[in-house]
Amino acid sequence: MTDMRLHDTQGTLRFGQPLPTARGAVILIHGRGSSPQDIAGLADVLPDAGLAFLAPAAEGGTWYPQRFFVPLEGNEPWLSSALKVIARLAAEVRAAGIPGDRLGFVGFSQGACLALEFAARHPLRYGFVAGLSGALIGPLGSARPQGELGGTPVLLGCAERDPHIPLEYVEQSAKTLSARGADVTKQVFPGASHTVFAEEVEWLRRLGPMEPGAGTGDRPAG
Hints:
By secondary structure, this protein is α/β, with parallel strands linked by helices.
């Protein structure tokens, strides 16, 4: 995939409330071989709270060419390009006057890995970060900038035998993000399905309009 082009924000699907009048925003990040239209359906599970939705498109449907856990240089320069797309959209949200604690991220598979990695590299108190069948990018123990996530609700969900996401990476990601002050919910499901689970949908549904402190208290089992 050495001829793979870099990413940009031009193909971003935008829907919901316009950013200038939105009460919050959610960046939806699709998986390998998928599209913004595919992941846009997850917006339906969030409460109608005046949210703006932004779903960027990976060039060729793939954010980075190799597995997520290879040495970081093996996925460059596409990984850095993908993270820059997320950073540009997050900056657009902030420029519209929406604070970090009203900005959420939802990603599936490759998109989950990107959402989690972005939050780890750009720590703030976000509205939430949902990594559906994903983990932090790079080999176990990869160095990341220090910083506080300030109680950001983070979901790490995955099947125990997911063929694409080894469970040890999910578990290490939970430890890493917890150490940076995230309020982590880890949900491990029986079987080997690489999919979005009903319990993950319920976690998203319960977040409401992303008031500060959303996601704390009782959590789904897992």
